[in-house]
Amino acid sequence: MAHWVFKCLKSTRLLPDLITYNILIRASIREGNDQLLSQLLRDMYIQQGLKPDAVTFGSLIYGLCKEGNITVARKLWEQMTGNGITPNIAIYNTITEAMFHIGKFRDIIMLLKEMAMEGCKPNGVSFEILNGAMSNSWMKEIPRSKTFGRIHMTDR
């Protein structure tokens, strides 16, 4: 579907804006269409001169985490923050959940500290991910009332 929409846009000579690219990028990730994803990113950068925003990076990080490629997702995270783009709660949740699924519980704690330092407040999804991590045997050793930065684990 995303490929069809992109072809229609090109045939009508309408110039997609960043929002349109973000929608198409997210759709191509959900469809697993890596070829279209590459084409969209190339077109966005080279032909349109558009720079990715937090939504663009969030979609890419989501796709990488979905594939289990957290190392590359973290490198992309570093590129994003290096470009002055602050991660939002959805991006933090994406990385946190991916770390949970591969058992990187210490990294989750570090990410929570980073999140607190950046002033990003957890939401319901964050607490659901943390609840799953807390039920894991390794995380049971950490008292539930433990405070990580400004995030108090028993607060909801």
From TrEMBL:
Q: Does the keyword Acetylation apply?
A: no
Family matches, as InterPro entries = PPR-containing_protein, PPR_rpt, TPR-like_helical_dom_sf
UniProt keyword annotations, A-Z: Repeat
The UniProt entry annotates PPR repeats at 53-87, 88-122
Stated family: Belongs to the PPR family. P subfamily.
In its UniProt entry, what is this protein called?
Pentatricopeptide repeat-containing protein
- Native organism is Rhododendron griersonianum
